[in-house]
């Protein structure tokens, strides 16, 4: 393509900016680079580039705010948004700003080139044609460009749910051409068991103006079902409806598969748990089947109830000595059913721990056949707070540090512990305690916004955060800000440091190359967290300062 006269590219992530700028240079004669929205706005005022390509989520001034400022200067400015998150609300913002494109990272280079070509044609057409009919054509081309660049299925319906528009992603999702689709309504493609809900949603959208994140089941042209997550908004003319659609069929079937796995585990994997005294606290259905005892008959009884008299005492002595030393016992056991019938299990017996890492009992996983099912990890998210769990932290911690070492970056790792949380639970109840954990996780999600920021629930009331900084002191300021935001939740706590719920933080900010190993780093941060609690709580202790 003939080169574009000038492009302004705004991106706060250095590696992404340097990489994509090499690509953009191929398409333009002059490329201006900015690290944030404010710097980008200054360059725009100075050079008036033909096209602005900007990331959305940035510090100082984000891409949406930059676009709004540029549009105040030049309503016809050509802006292409880049984002790492396919977000319906951002898509709506982009449409309202009459943006020229909305590309999701990682950027498809072919799609980027096509978008630049379309935008170039648009501004060339604007420069040549100023009449009303030409402007209407341009606006239509803008809308088509932005809707065609998103990977989500986008459609526009009239109030009778007849299709007025559908992008390629939506057509591929349902297997129709647009010529076929415009003869149908959305309700005609809706699964019968979803029909009542579809009418209720339509009524709500017309009355309220929107309906976000609901699940619907479409019927494809080939008669297969497609599960979709939908966000719907009434268009400004109130005569049409904008719909963003994500295909979640794989996720739905995965959830069903996970549920099946759990049922399979309960029905097929033989498990038994006891307290520290050997009293049975839980058994699986598979254990009931093989032992002959129902759950009601075995729970609350001593584990010795199933011990066969032929089992040598030294085996049980060996089990006890092994598991009380935090080791795993493995071996063959001979047990008996209520009628005295013997059965054999190959068992692994482990210690189990409470939220304070104190041993609370023991659990066994056994097989009466020659294989033990391997259970895939069900999820990387914590079920209560919906942030990453400890299992995912263990998986990513080493990778994160090694990546930072390669790029010679600064790594910050913090551990956050809710102050006097047990007292809070004892006073207000566990449901209120769960609400506290959920509120704090929202604070962390709001604070850790960048693509390479991570937050975790490490266990109980303990959270963790991984992030990168360019200046060590900024990490300390950031951590203190977390303490302040948790305090600002103003959740009453009569046994707290003050009258509200607070948290203590241990923090290390360090050059990645100086990290000896991950275990030592974790221990150092844990020690700093302990110091913060010992020093009065509701504060940060770090390797940067002991204040």
Number of DSSP strands?
21
Kindly provide the radius of gyration, computed on alpha-carbon positions and rounded to a whole number of angstroms: 30 Å
The major β-sheet equals:
6 strands, mixed
Number of helices, counting only DSSP H or I runs of 4 residues or more:
18
Averaged pLDDT: 86
* Cross-sheet strand order for the largest sheet: 16-18-19-17-20-21
**Beta-strand percent range:** 25-35%
Q: What separation lies between the terminal Cα atoms?
A: 59 Å
- Sequence stretches where pLDDT stays below 50 over 5 or more residues: 369-378
Approximately how much helix is present in the residues?
40-55%
Q: Supply the helix-strand structural class.
A: alpha/beta
**Global geometry:** globular
Characteristic key phrases:
about 550 residues; alpha/beta; six-stranded mixed beta sheet; five-stranded parallel beta sheet; 18 helices; 21 strands; about 40% helix
Question: What's a concise summary of this model?
Answer:
The chain is an alpha/beta fold.
